[in-house]
Structures are given as C-alpha cells and as structure tokens.
Design goal:
Elements lengths: L4 H38 L2 H4 L2 H30 L8 H32 L4 H4 L4 H18 L2 H5 E7 L2 E6 L3 H38 L2 H4 L7 H35 L5 H12 L16
Antiparallel strand pairs: 1-2
Helix pairs in contact: 1-3, 1-11, 3-4, 3-6, 4-6, 4-8, 4-10, 8-10, 10-11
Length: 294
C-alpha cells in the first residue's frame, strides 16, 4: 500500500512526540532507579576498593545529571510542547551547556575506565601498578576541568533568538563559523571516542583471553584478575557498546543532514532529518541542524 508524502511527513513529525510522551518518561524512571541501585551496590566496602568502581560512580553521576536535566527537559519540550528555555535566558544557556557537557564527559570517563581495565588485565606487574586510586582521582579531575572549559562556548553562543515577531526560540548562534565548529566537532567526537573505546576493549579482551589460556600451575604466585574485575569488565563492555551504538546514530543523523545541505531536498527528506534530530538521537535531542550551515 502506497502512502502519500504528506502522510509520511506527518508520521515522522508525530513519532518523536509520542516517543517523548510515552517512552521517554519510562526510560527516565528506569534510568534513575537503575542509577540509584547501582550506586548503592558500588558503595559497599567489597566494591568500593576497586579503582574501576570510582570511574563508574563518576559515570553514574554524569548520567544522572543528563537524565534529570537533558532528558527531562526534552520530555517536556518535545512531548508536551512546554519549553521554559524559550523565555528564560539562564535556563536556555544552562540546558544546552549541561546537555553538551554530560554528553562528552560520560564517554571520556568510560575511556578512562577502559584504560584502567587494560592496565589491570596486563601480565606485567609494573603496568598493573598504574591502576591506582591516586591516578584515577587525577584523571577524573583533569577530565572534569577540560570538559567544563571545552563546553563553555555553549554559554556564550546559545541564546534566545527572535524567529518571528512574536516567536522566540532558544538556539545556537547562527554564525557560519560557530555552526561549522559545533557540527564538525560533534561529528569528530562521535567518531573518535567510539574508535578509542573499541581499540581499548579489544586490547583488554586479548589480555583476558591470554590470562585464561595460561595453565593454573603457571599462574601460581602471579596476581591475576579476580571475579569482581571480570564482572566490572563485562559491565564496562556493555556501557561501551551502548555508547558506540548511540554515537553511530548521531553520525548518521549529522551525515544525513550534511548530505541534504548540498542537494535539493524533498519534504520527506527534510522530515526524515527532523525525525533524526528530534527523536533524542543526538545529545538529548539538541544537536544543531546541519541544514543551517551556509
């Protein structure tokens, strides 16, 4: 059965609305409950002494901020057309800033955790010694400072803009230089960070396979990964895979928008782009539209 372009366009416009009305609130509740439960488990003494747990706790904090700021904001904005950022300059800047900050802080922390698991899985005693809480605190501090500074451009370049005489919208500055910087830096982050995760995960997996392949008698007297180390590594793999999938969707969304920029677009193609940008695929639904590039 063939559908008219108007029907397809309307369907693509409605799907993000329904997703944010019915699906996103469920994810919001599950996400918060899951984070609270995980924090409760990781704060137990048996887990707390593990260095990787420290990275996971930071990831959980970042994820909780994202859920309660960015996801909650897009639920009201996209699902119920309630947008306080269009009338309050501080909320406008803060919402975009927190969304961008947490979207880069979380994966970088996952990379630091992946490096820690790579160190722990090494058979070289000197290499394993680098997995320490002291180094973890230093890495987390540097990561926090760099991400905060790198995200500051949102506070400067995002503001409430006049779209029509009586319509105002919180959005990015429309200068070509800034739009180019934001879109291509987001694209680079969405490609580079997953590649680093894949590389570190493969190397750690090889180390684990090497440990498992060594006979028990040859491992006597040599410290190997314990049960909790393996559990944390599997948990880290799951987090990395989820982030890689989400990053792939972001790359597709931005790439599709850039392709349309250089071609004559149909109404359906523009609707597909708006669907990708409005479904929460990219940075909580707040990715800059490549079509705005000059």
């Amino acid at each position: 059965m063939a559908y008219s372009d108007g029907y397809v366009v309307q369907l693509l416009m409605n799907i993000p609305i329904y997703l944010h009305q019915y699906v996103a609130p469920i994810l919001y509740v599950i996400g918060n409950l899951g984070n609270c439960l995980t924090v409760f488990i990781f704060l137990k003494r048996s887990w707390r002494k593990n260095v990787c747990v420290l990275y996971f706790l930071v990831c959980l904090l970042s994820n909780s901020i994202f859920i309660n700021a960015s996801l909650l904001g897009t639920i009201f904005t996209t699902g119920f057309q309630i947008d306080l950022t269009d009338s309050n300059e501080f909320l406008c800047k803060f919402f975009y800033y927190i969304t961008f900050l947490t979207s880069i802080y979380y994966p970088v922390t996952l990379i630091l955790a992946s490096i820690d698991r790579l160190l722990v899985s090494s058979q070289n005693v000197s290499v394993r010694l680098y997995s320490s809480k002291r180094l973890a605190y230093l890495n987390i501090s540097i990561n926090t400072a760099l991400c905060i500074v790198f995200s500051l451009h949102l506070f400067i370049k995002v503001h409430i803009q006049r779209i029509r005489p009586t319509v105002y919208k919180c959005y990015y500055d429309q200068s070509s230089s800034y739009l180019n910087f934001f879109i291509y830096s987001t694209l680079l982050i969405s490609v580079l960070l997953p590649l680093i995760m894949i590389l570190l995960s493969v190397l750690a997996f090889k180390n684990v396979r090497r440990i498992q392949a060594i006979a028990r008698q040859r491992r006597q007297g040599i410290r190997s990964m314990n049960k909790k180390d393996f559990q944390l590594l599997r948990c880290l793999y799951v987090h990395n895979i989820i982030y890689i999938i989400c990053s792939a969707l972001i790359v597709i969304a931005i790439g599709y928008g850039l392709r349309l920029k250089y071609e004559t677009s149909t109404a359906v193609e523009l609707a597909i782009q708006n669907f990708l940008m409005g479904s929460g695929v990219s940075n909580g639904g707040e990715t800059c539209d490549p079509q705005n590039l000059p």
